[in-house]
Amino acid sequence: MPMMTNPLFPSLTPRLARTTGALALAFGALWSAPAGAEKADRFQPLNFAADAARVEDNQRLNILSGNVEITKGTMVVRADRVEVRQNADGSQTATAIGGPGGRAFFRQKRDGVDEAIEGEAERIVYDGRTEIIRFTSRAVMRRLQGNTVNDQVSGPVIIYDNKTSVFQVQGGGSSSGATGRVRGVITPRTTPETPGAESTR
Question: Domain 12-17+19-186 - what CATH class?
Answer without folding.
Answer: mainly beta
